[in-house]
Input
Amino acid sequence: MGSSFGDLFRISTFGESHGGGVGVIVEGCPPRLNLSVESIQAELDRRKPGQSHITTPRKEADQVQVLSGLLDGETTLGTPIAMVVRNKDQRPGDYKDMAVAFRPSHADATYQAKYGIQARSGGGRASARETIGRVAAGAIAKQLLKQAAGTEILAWVKRIHNIEASGIDPQRVQLSDVEANIVRCPESAVAERMVERIEAIGREGDSCGGVIECVVRHPAVGLGMPVFDKLEADLAKAVMSLPATKGFEIGSGFDGTLLKGSEHNDAFLPSDDGRLKTATNNSGGIQGGISNGEPIVIRVAFKPTATIRKEQQTIDSDGKATTLAGKGRHDPCVLPRAVPMVEAMVALVLADHLLRQQGQCSLW
Amino acid sequence: MGSSFGDLFRISTFGESHGGGVGVIVEGCPPRLNLSVESIQAELDRRKPGQSHITTPRKEADQVQVLSGLLDGETTLGTPIAMVVRNKDQRPGDYKDMAVAFRPSHADATYQAKYGIQARSGGGRASARETIGRVAAGAIAKQLLKQAAGTEILAWVKRIHNIEASGIDPQRVQLSDVEANIVRCPESAVAERMVERIEAIGREGDSCGGVIECVVRHPAVGLGMPVFDKLEADLAKAVMSLPATKGFEIGSGFDGTLLKGSEHNDAFLPSDDGRLKTATNNSGGIQGGISNGEPIVIRVAFKPTATIRKEQQTIDSDGKATTLAGKGRHDPCVLPRAVPMVEAMVALVLADHLLRQQGQCSLW
Amino acid sequence: MGSSFGDLFRISTFGESHGGGVGVIVEGCPPRLNLSVESIQAELDRRKPGQSHITTPRKEADQVQVLSGLLDGETTLGTPIAMVVRNKDQRPGDYKDMAVAFRPSHADATYQAKYGIQARSGGGRASARETIGRVAAGAIAKQLLKQAAGTEILAWVKRIHNIEASGIDPQRVQLSDVEANIVRCPESAVAERMVERIEAIGREGDSCGGVIECVVRHPAVGLGMPVFDKLEADLAKAVMSLPATKGFEIGSGFDGTLLKGSEHNDAFLPSDDGRLKTATNNSGGIQGGISNGEPIVIRVAFKPTATIRKEQQTIDSDGKATTLAGKGRHDPCVLPRAVPMVEAMVALVLADHLLRQQGQCSLW
Amino acid sequence: MGSSFGDLFRISTFGESHGGGVGVIVEGCPPRLNLSVESIQAELDRRKPGQSHITTPRKEADQVQVLSGLLDGETTLGTPIAMVVRNKDQRPGDYKDMAVAFRPSHADATYQAKYGIQARSGGGRASARETIGRVAAGAIAKQLLKQAAGTEILAWVKRIHNIEASGIDPQRVQLSDVEANIVRCPESAVAERMVERIEAIGREGDSCGGVIECVVRHPAVGLGMPVFDKLEADLAKAVMSLPATKGFEIGSGFDGTLLKGSEHNDAFLPSDDGRLKTATNNSGGIQGGISNGEPIVIRVAFKPTATIRKEQQTIDSDGKATTLAGKGRHDPCVLPRAVPMVEAMVALVLADHLLRQQGQCSLW
Output
């Protein structure tokens, strides 16, 4: 409860930021899938700290170890796939003050209120380190979707603070465009300005947020389980469960509410192959909670990192007023590292719904 | 799968727009709750069609019948509570053309693609009629939350098309303010302009959308189950499962991404009673996925109604190009009737998490 | 929680023995299944009280009404199928004393202890009346299994008190053999003695139990989800959730523990069609938690009916000693009516696992 | 799906018999439980191979490592507790023939039929080695039940082949009695004969089965969730998911069907403390699916070990007739090592239902 996600393609993550390690069990993966452990590691490398000067300087190898579920390390058995990443480079000293003073807008105070206890340092389960299990599992989901349906999932940074990339075409953008720079914005001129902004804000001891966009190209048609497990509903939950998220949009999103029905509706076009085809894609690839085969497009708002070096007002665990200045090594902006996290969560939703659709609607 | 929602306080809805009826089973409701069936009916009356001239003129009594789970019609037994509303006033003729031509941005085409079959008329499960079960169940959740924790849930229309109410204080607004006008916007001067806009757009045979805001006052502290069932994640899923939703925000939302961490963080204040208290509420009442006791504030984007009287390009079920003009009796704007739906979905999430928190964290 | 069963083919039952009605929602049924409502009613007729002089003389028509999920009353839409049976012929007076004195070995005392409240009469959810929803849903599962895989499910009474039928061949017995007599034992000579025994014990104001056997012929191969949702584990749970059950066996069962491995093992035989074939079937059609295609054979122990006319020692709800003699119209032996219940629960397990297998293992 | 068990206190196991290791994640454990890792290891030691001359001579240390969920290695955080045991002492050579010839009454053939692939050696997930995760998780459940409700769970061998212990009093038997001999039968004279029987049958290259009995003393009252998650139904599923089980009984079990209602009913006795008390315990501590506070007593049938040294008829993976004689190091009788497995599964069910009862019925 709470640390598991999905119904048929189901993952369970474990691990605190400091302790033996973090990891995940992937349950329900179809048997006889060719699985590349290198691809899993590659996704983890996109997520890991210390990958560039605009991320936290913490150095962690984040080497994944697959404990079960594979034959010869390359073919799924249909049994649970357990993956573990050992914790390294621990400096609990960094977090000493934090154990006493509650970090504003962080999870310290609420974990204490909920559980009456909490991990002594580093954010415990609320640390971004927890997302390792998600990214590793998401890498498997991606390979499943690719092999079963030719589906591609790609995310990128669309806005940092108030610097927005407006020329990206979700139909065409490639992984190499995204990975071409350290901020993961495929519009290179804008990316440069984003990096400068992150540097500047980081120098102030402050932080910033922004917006990540994600596209699913060639999704299977018919995914989504009305009325509660509509595809957009499960996507919303998936990304809103990532740390630091504040908003979710699909297709036309909040701006779409400014249009009239006649402007917003996506006219159906005749197609040669019987697939549904629409003139516009305000629906974002999902209608009535079910994928129609057009690209699925979502956007996710990430707030500025809560932990900053600037001194802030807060209280300590006795409820007394105090001040706090973060001493840990934190990202001034989480978005570059959050790109693979968003892709992973989207992949997990799609993989789960692929199997659910297969379960209910493929008998005849 | 798909028609059930919640873990411990769990609902399952059933019913097409045309057929024997629609309804819901509520499972897991605590025993010995004083339940007012009148309050359930009152919520359904806020949702029902024909309640004002800016909603669909369809007349449906939507009278709820409670089949099980109550002693003397007023106290819960702890067993499943089944509620049914019979379908009335059916005019399947209205939908005749729609069975052939797929309505743009509606669910006809995707239901057909997914299931290979669909209800012959009226939208089937994709009809807003399905939300009757949600609203009835939400009314029970509200009473549970009120009696167990003194929690209040209130939603209202914040924006219609581009007319926005900017002076509403989520801490103070009352149900009577919301119900004071037919558009359910508590700022009366703005409400008047909203009604005029809906009338004007309706006369054009077109439709419009907007934004609903919802507050939870006096939520229990500690609700939310990291890392996947964070409270905001479950809220996002809950409201994004409502028909016509395109976006979700909590607290500072998308706008919050324009702030720096030092501006966005909510400083903790010393409090007399040991409860957490923050100087600002950019977090929207949830930190680290767990409620901190401050008001929970969310916003939901609703697109313009898909079915309009204006003629539109589309295809028929054979894939041939055709045009379609909606002849049914539809809302030119769903928001006034969606207000109780949003409250219901929020109440269901809170009730479920209250029981989940009780289950895991109240033994000692 | 508690009133739902299954994962993909999932049912939720509701209703007390007295009140508005009882029923069930079936979620996840594949679309485009030809469904005969008459067949559902036929199963309910096998279950209903008053069907013969050895069952309770209560007369209830138990007429099922399908509220949703069907097109033209005969084809599934893939959406939830809700079925309701109205309660009739209520004589709450019969149960007056029982509201005060706890019936020994019945659920009165434990429901009160658990919930702190209970239905005022008739056993509430603990009544056999609750099984109506199971049998109706099971009838759908049977039709699904028949159409998808040619699977047949058949149960019968194997023992009443100490009168046992020993000549039944699970491979060959037919529904007509079972329905040939009122006790539902396909060995007619033994059946006669069983009826006499039930009559005799009933005349004493007492009751008796026995054993029901059930076979699944032509099950799909590969059903069952190790390691916890092994097919026999889910079958055990399914039938042990029926009222009055005390034991479950599969294949060789308890007697099989008296054999040595060399005697108990089922040798595999070469087969022409690639299907698995075994020389014996001590496994009862399931190996390693997975169906091997051989007939699945289980047995279920039912205790003597708890409510009897004979006076018994007990306590009242204040904890004071008292005596009680049942005045309601109860079955002296539940087994004849439990036969369709066992079939229904077995069908529900198989249908669910068929979809689960389809979901995980049919992509390529 | 399939490798997870429980709703609120939920475990997910992973790992093949050969590979990186086996383990479990325990989700939903209440925070602030004092947890002894030594006690977990002690339970694993009762389960491990090589513990006596009547078990398999494989030597495995089965040393548990706790990766997450604990503060200072002794207090639960309320977050997932991950535990891993590394695989050692692998001799895949032993299983070479088995990869080709299907072992009769083992899981080789059905895993192949279901998944189209299987672990190359040692039984994969079907190996008893998988139960390590269950026993480790069960040890946590035991500590939870003890601290929260004073509950004790104890199992023992009641019968081996046809040698039965008939003088054991479930109310009084102690762990030390069970652990006093290597066969884990608390009746020492009978135990001696059981050991001799196992030795004799083992010398023949054959195997034997038997019956394990288990008692829960001082269970919380009110556990169990009618109508499907009755406590006995979940217990049945729990133990029937263990390898080699063929039957389950509660209380009077199959023999109880030979009694009349007047003989079988458990008369309620007045009690001083308001707790329910019964004159007899044919119900086995559960009535209407809910614990009444009396000891819960169950029995489980285990078949003779499938893998034997004697030559047997079978087929190979091409469907051709062949013979097979087990060469691996296997237990001639699984029961001594299965005792802690039964206790673990029972503890997991009770812990889960304790939290579920707390969740629904403890708000007021």
About this structure: Chain C has one domain: 4-361. Chain C has a mean pLDDT of 94. The first strand of chain C starts at residue 4 and ends at 5.
